[in-house]
Amino acid sequence: MFSPHGPTVRELAVQALSSVERGYDLLAPKFDLTPFRTPDAVLDAVAEALAARGPFDRGLDLCCGTGAGADVLRTVCRESVTGVDFSAGMLAVGRNQVPADAPPRVDWVRGDARALPFGAAFDLVVSFGAFGHFVPGELPGLFAQVHSVLRPGGRFAFPIGAPPGPASPWYWALFGFDAAMRVRNALWRPPFVMYYRTFRFADVRRELTCAGFTVEHQALEGLGRRPDGSPRCRLIVATRESGVPRPRPA
Hints:
Blueprint: H1 9-16, H2 20-27, H3 40-51, E1 56-62, H4 68-76, E2 77-85, H5 88-97, E3 105-110, E4 122-126, H6 139-149, E5 150-161, H7 169-187, H8 201-210, E6 213-219, E7 233-240
Parallel strand pairs: 1-2, 1-4, 2-3, 4-5
Antiparallel strand pairs: 5-7, 6-7
């Protein structure tokens, strides 16, 4: 799963015992050589789906890491692309990978997704592989922040994979990872928040609606379907409504 030039077991252990920010600063130089980077097949499928809905003017890659999502935005945005992340190390890698004179302009901003340093300036916000770093109780605030930086009619798009069933080895691998992470966070400080099984489709749709979005989804057909015919991955597209957010159900 890891490239021979990727992080060593020792490096991964040091990262896992650090804070999220410090851990990603340490991992940044080798991050793109790990399975934690969003696969190109997913990025390409999302880019194709967004191209059919665009073009857009200004795009934001939320929790951009080394910039895989920014590369998607560069294919569908005409004016500018911004990547925001709280890891200075990940931003530095992303900045070094994009030619400074390649259009559209790409800006790299250090910031917290829970307190975005922007106004309503963007037509499109994307995010890839970052939501496991937020516990479910943080989703209302996170989605409210995204809503606040989108222009009316702007879209928030991200892929969400179908959860594996109990018969799949991946189900137990992800279950074991999340369990180990909970034990680690109960015994060690600072916490490292990274869970794979807490970002559920029904919960996400409800919270996006409460945050003031109209939510739709489409199958990413290029990623195939499961034996029961359901898509392996969907693209969630949440459009900012012009009104105020709706009250959350009790």
